[in-house]
Design goal:
about 120 residues, mainly alpha
Amino acid sequence: MKMFSLRISGICAAAGALCLAACATSAMPQERLIASQSSIRAAEEVGAEKVPAAALHLQLAREQIEQAKKFMQQGANERADLVLQRASSDAELALALAREAPLRAQAQQAIDKLQALKTKVAQ
């Protein structure tokens, strides 16, 4: 009887620990929401909306934040957290693409100048 009581106590303790862990992971993902919004602002500041590929990812990030907010209102915090992770990734990609565009243009200008010089020298 004592062994049965110990076993039940152990099972209850394990179940309680699992419940606490589940509550901890499904807490409102406010920090990730703030981080995602910051990533979007950073992409906007470097002109992501002017670069077509970056603008696409920026728009996706915005839409994902709105979807995550709906999930949070419904109490689906784990789903919201996953969507916010995608939003952060898309916003960071938009930022990288926006930073890359002027560098790519400068590189192309350098290539064009080099070609013009080669043509001039060959004449």
